[in-house]
Amino acid sequence: MGGVRTLVVWCPDWPLVAAGLCHRPAAVLSAGRVVACSAPARAEGVARGLRRRQAEARCPALVVVDHDPSADARAFEPVVVAIEAFTPEVEIVRPGMCALATRGPSRYFGGDDTLVARVAAAVDERLPPGAPACRVGVADGRFAAERAARQGRVVRSGESAAFLSGFPVSTLGHVELADLLVRLGIRALGQLAELPTAAVLARFGPEGAAAHRLARGLDERPLAARIPPLDLTMVAELDPPAERLETAAFVAKSLADRLHAALAAQGLTATRVLVEAEWEHGERLGRRWRLDGTGGRATGALADRVRWQLDGWMTGSGGGAGAADRPSGGLTLLRLVPEEVRPDDGRQMGFWGGDRAAAERVARALARIQGMLGPDAVVTAAPAGGRSPAEQFHLVPWGERPPAPTDRGPGPPWPGRIPSPSPATVHLAPVSAEVADARLSVAGGPWSAVTAWAGPWPVDERWWDDAAHRRRTRWQVVTVEGTAHLLSQVGDRWEVEATYD
Amino acid sequence: MAGERLLPVLPTLEPLFPARGLRRGSVVSVVGSTSLALSLLAATSAQGSWCAAVGLPSLGVAAAAELGVVLERFPMVASPGRAPGAGGWAWVVAALVDAFDVVLARPPSHVKGADARRLTARARERGAVLVLSGASGAWPEAVEVQLTVASSVWEGVGRGHGRLRGRRVEVVAGGRGAAARERRVELWLPHPDGGVRGIAPCTNGVDIAPCTNGVDIAPCTNGVEGVVDGRRAHARRVVS
Fold first, then answer.
1. Taking CB atoms and an 8 Å limit, are A381 and B76 in contact across chains?
2. What residue ranges define each of the domains in chain B, with the CATH number in brackets?
3. pTM for the complete prediction?
4. Which ipTM was obtained for this model?
5. Residue A332 half-sphere exposure, CB side, CA atoms within 13 Å?
C-alpha cells in the first residue's frame, strides 16, 4: 500500500525564467541571499544561499534581481493552463512546480510514460524560448514524485521506497532531524526506512514517524487532515465588477483574511485551497493551491497566493498564448474553498506557551507508550454509523487519519438504533445471561428480579452475507438493584451487550 | 489550563469536592459508576484539558461524548501490558500522568502498595489528577476524595414500554482531610435531556425535577418546591 500515484512537473530555475534571465548569468535574491540562479551563473560557481557580495565575487558579470513571487506565479499560469488539458485537478505546489494524481489521466492516455511525454511536450511548448526544459516525474506519493521529477524519471508503482533509499536524509527538508539522524549514523533514507516503525516513533516522536513514512515511499499522513464543513467557504461578490487587478486584489485580501480568521476560530489551518473566480461574461475559473509547512500558516500566505492567481488570470502576460485565455470583462465573484484542513498546532498559544506545549507533551508521552506497546495500543474514537453502541464509534490508532465516513455529518439514519443515553460500559465480548420468570442472571451469577424493561429493537443486519448475517433483538432491562443492561436475544440465547453504569 | 491549581467540574458536581473542583495533584476514586467517572472529566475537557483513559477496554465512547468529554483530546490505552515494569499498567499511568491533566484509570485486580504510592507522588509532583474507576478495594492507598453511587433509579422505562431516559442517583462523597465529612448529592446522571443535572434534596417525599438550566442545587425552603431564585417556574413535578 503506497502513497497516491502522483505526477510532478518541475520547471527548473523558475524565478529566472519568469524574470526572462535564464540565458544569462543571473541570480534572484531574497533577504540578501541567493534563492535561485541560472545555469550560466551556476557554471561560474554561484549557488543558493550565498550572500550578494559572495555571488558577485564569483561571477562579476552577474545580473542580480530581487525575488518577485507575484511575477513567478503570473508567468506560471500558462504552464498550469497547459497541464489542465490533462486533468482539472492540478495542484500548484509553488510557482514552478505543480502536482496531479495520475490515476485517471494515466489510464486515459495509455500509461504513465505516455502521460509524462505528453505533459512534458505540452509544458515545453508554453515555456519562453531559452528556458531550461521542464522535468516530469511520476512516483507513489508527492515526496517521491518530487524527487523523481528532478531526475525526470518514472518510478514504477511500489518501487518508490527502493528509489528513495539512496537519497540522503537531508532531502526530508527537516534540518534538525536530519542532523540528528546523521550523527546517529543514519545517512540515507533507505537506512531510516529499515528501522521498525515503533522504534522510530518512540525515539524521534511524531515528526520522526512522518519522516519514516516518507522514507518508506508512503504519503505523509497529516494528523487528521479532513474535508472541512461547507460553511467555511468564503464568497465575495463584486458590484460593480472589478476591471483592475488592484481592486480585485483588495477584495481578495479581505476575503483571505476572513477565511483565515474563520479557520483560526476553529483551531484549523488550510493545507489546500481552491480559488474560484467568476467573470462578467460568465466564465468561471478555478485553481488549487497547496499551503504547506510554515509558509502556509502566516496570515499573508493565502492572500498572496490569491493575488498571484488573480494576477495570472487578469494580466495574462508571461506565456505567448496568455492573452487568448484572459477572461473578458471584470471580476464579479471570488470564492475561496478550503478543501483540506488540519488542526493548527502552530497557533493558539496560551499563556506561558500553554496549549502548544501541552499538546507536545501529550504527543511525546503517547509516542513513548506506542513505542513500547505498539501503535495500536493508543486509540482515539471517531464517530461512525451504526445501531449498537459498539458500532457508533471507530477506534483509530492515535496519530492516524480517521476513516472516511467520519467526514460526513451524522450520516444515514439507522432504524433500530438504540436511543441515547448510551451505556457507559460496552462489553468487549458479550456476556452470557439467562432470563426466566422476569428474573435475570448475568454470567451465571445470582438471580435478580427485573423491575422494568423496554424494547424490543429488532435488528436483521447483513442478511445478504451468510458469514456476517446477524439477527437479534435488543432490550433494555432494569433490575431491582437499579442496574440497567442492554440485552440482546439471539435465537433463544441471551447476552449482555452493554451496561448502563 | 496550565497555571490553575484547580480543574473545573460541572457546577452540579462541585458540592462533592471540598475545593469545588478537581485539585491538581490529587487522586480521586469513583466506585460503582463509569458514567460518574466520565462526567468528572466533562467540564475540564471542554475547556481544553487533555484527558486519557487507561485499562478500560469496555469504555462506552458514545456515553463519554454524550456526557461532554471531547473525544479529540481523549486518547485511550485500552489494554496495557500484563507484566509489571515497562509497558505495564503502572508504567502507562505514570507516563500519562507526566503529560495529561486528568488520567482516568481502572486499576487491575491488585495494585502493589509501592506502585500506588509512587503514582500518588507522581501525580502530586506533575499536577495531574488521577481518577480511579472501579471496585473500592483495588487501590491500597488513601485517596483524597472517594465518590460512591449509593442508589440509582432509572426513569422513563416501564414494564415493557418506554425506554431508558434518565437516571437519578445518590452520590456519597467521602475522603480524607477536608473531604472526610460525608456529603450526599442527588443527581440526574444522565438527565432525560442529556448531561448531568442536580436534584434538590426534598423532605416530603415529592421529588422536584430540576429546572432546565442545569445549575440548581438549592435546599428546600418550604418543603414542597426545591428550586429557589425565582426559577420555580421551570420546576416540574415527578410523581415518584
1. yes
2. 6-147 (3.40.50.300), 148-238 (no CATH)
3. 0.56
4. 0.80
5. 10
